[in-house]
Amino acid sequence: MDFYKDRDKYINTITHLSLMLMGIGVGTKTGAFTLVGALFALIVFFMDKKNRFANIKSIPFTGTIVFFTSYVLVVYLECLYGENVTGQKLVLRNFEKIITFFVIYFFIGNSNRSLLYTSLGLMIGLMINTGVVCMQANDIMYEFASSKRYGGFFGNPNSLGSVLELQIPVFIYMCYYYRKSKTLFVVFTLTSLCAFWNLYMTGSRGACMAVISEIIVMSGILLYRKLQSKNAVFYVLGAFMLCLAVVLGTALVFNRGYDSERLLLWGSAWKMFLDYPLFGVGFNNWEDFYPTLYISYLATEPHLTTPHNLYLFIMAETGLAGMISYFSIIVWQVKESIKYSSLEVNICSENLTIGDMFIALTIG
Question: Distance between CA 309 and CA 209 in Å, rounded?
Answer without folding.
Answer: 13
